[in-house]
Amino acid sequence: MINQGIKAALNPIAFQGGPFTIHWYGVIIASGVVLALLLAVREGKRLGIFEDDFYDYLLWALPIAIICARIYYVVFQWSYYSQHPSEIIAIWDGGIAIYGAILGGFIVLLVFCHYRHLSSWLMMDIIAPTLIMAQGIGRWGNFMNQEAFGDITTRAHLMAQHIPNWIINQMYIGGHYRIPTFLYESLWDLTGFALLMLLRHREHLFRRGEIFLTYVMWYAFGRFFIEGMRTDSLMIGNIRISQLLSVVFFVSALVILIIRRHKNIPWYYNGINKN
């Protein structure tokens, strides 16, 4: 009787015409990036950073972040891609790792701020809330591709969580209902966005860089536990890579926050031309 509620999976293709195919995965991620850019520009104007600085940063950061995200994923799935090299560039089918994108974007930001004589801490504080918002939106690309899910569960269990039927139906994958870990992470990220925006409006209580460090700790903390529920984790032996990085990032951000709070470090304080 329970199978009567099963419907066909949503079409992952948003538009197809001739040789052109546009996937919902790309549309959703692009939408998150555009919205994040608009919000960052708005906050940047308030803090005296030119709008063009954000556009120029994105022109460099976006392609490099995507490349790094794909490289990260392919490296840890090399046993498959070594046998299917033609699929290495097929990011439209999914298979990009957010930690790879974050690392790539972070490196570009440091270099960019150095050459533009901008405060990297200030830029990170501006970008952090919009980044986690984009991450929360981007997880719905996983939803459309039916990926980033957890272990086998039941429809009754999902209904007990008050998850809408249209999400439950999409979680019927490979003959079984799956735990919607994409949804949990999306909700965690969007809650983090609300938290960081709240902290931003109480900026007199925080020092430069602390919004960004809070973002790192918030995301890493949630990702550690959500990753533990996933069945498609990238692994090194028996260790989930994302869980390992989550621990490293959380501890690192916390230590930096504590040290900077108790030490008089010159580059900590305000001043747009200080890195």
Automatic annotation (TrEMBL):
Belongs to the Lgt family. Its EC number is 2.5.1.145. The chain crosses the membrane at residues 22-42, 54-76, 96-115, 122-141, 211-229, 241-259. The lineage of its organism: Bacteria, Bacillati, Bacillota, Bacilli, Lactobacillales. It is a multi-pass membrane protein. It comes from Limosilactobacillus balticus. This is Phosphatidylglycerol--prolipoprotein diacylglyceryl transferase. The gene is lgt. It is found in: Cell membrane. Catalyzes the transfer of the diacylglyceryl group from phosphatidylglycerol to the sulfhydryl group of the N-terminal cysteine of a prolipoprotein, the first step in the formation of mature lipoproteins. A 1,2-diacyl-sn-glycero-3-phospho-(1'-sn-glycerol) binds at residue 139. PANTHER family: PHOSPHATIDYLGLYCEROL--PROLIPOPROTEIN DIACYLGLYCERYL TRANSFERASE (PTHR30589:SF0), PROLIPOPROTEIN DIACYLGLYCERYL TRANSFERASE (PTHR30589). Pathway: Protein modification; lipoprotein biosynthesis (diacylglyceryl transfer). HAMAP family: Lgt. NCBIfam families: lgt (TIGR00544). Keywords: Cell membrane, Membrane, Transferase, Transmembrane, Transmembrane helix.
